[in-house]
Amino acid sequence: MDPMERLLAERACERLILDFVHRLDLGEPSSVAELFTEDGVWRWPHDGRLVEGRDALRTYFGSRPADRLSRRMMSNVLVTVASPDTAGVISCFTTYRVDGYEGGVVPAGPPVQIGHYEDTFHRAGGAWLLASRTLHLPFGGPTPRSNVPAS
């Protein structure tokens, strides 16, 4: 690959990672399934969780509680382009979230999760998609309930 092709591939993968967290936090969570290949996989080895295929991914991510407020901070995104149509990415994240959100400002507390993702990307038809996403979560805890009434 020439340097410009590599740069464009890296940027496309970075953009997809940001699109993923924006859809979870600010959009329609089930729509993240469209960012995966048709046979895409999401896994969390810690508890053996494995979700395979777009339909299952749509159901899994769409099952988030309707009253959940979350924001993820992504950082340290390292894209390694292996070929014109494959790439690997490692990225770190921090998640703040509460359940029971009814509006207003929630007092900031500590993050609920800090970890990293290991991703595999494939390009088909010119578009980069997630083939697999593996969650590694060395810091995690329960999601608190908001005790702030709507304003």
SS elements, strand count:
6
Number of helices: 2
Poorly predicted sequence stretches spanning 5 or more consecutive residues: none
Task: Please state how the strands of the largest beta sheet are arranged side by side.
Answer: 2-1-6-5-4-3
Structural class: alpha+beta
Secondary-structure element order, as H and E?
HEEHEEEE
Output mean pLDDT.
95
Multimeric state of these chains?
single chain
- The first-to-last residue Cα distance is 54 Å
Alpha carbon gyration radius: 16 Å
Shape: globular
Percentage of residues in helical conformation: 10-25%
Strand content: 35-45%
Q: What's the story with the biggest beta sheet? A: 6 strands, mixed
Tell me what the structure shows:
- β1 (36-44) and β2 form a beta hairpin.
- The protein has 2 helices and 6 strands.
- The N and C termini lie far apart (54 Å).
- By secondary structure, the chain is an alpha+beta fold.
- It has a 6-stranded mixed beta sheet with strand order 2-1-6-5-4-3, with helices on one face.
- The mean pLDDT is 95.
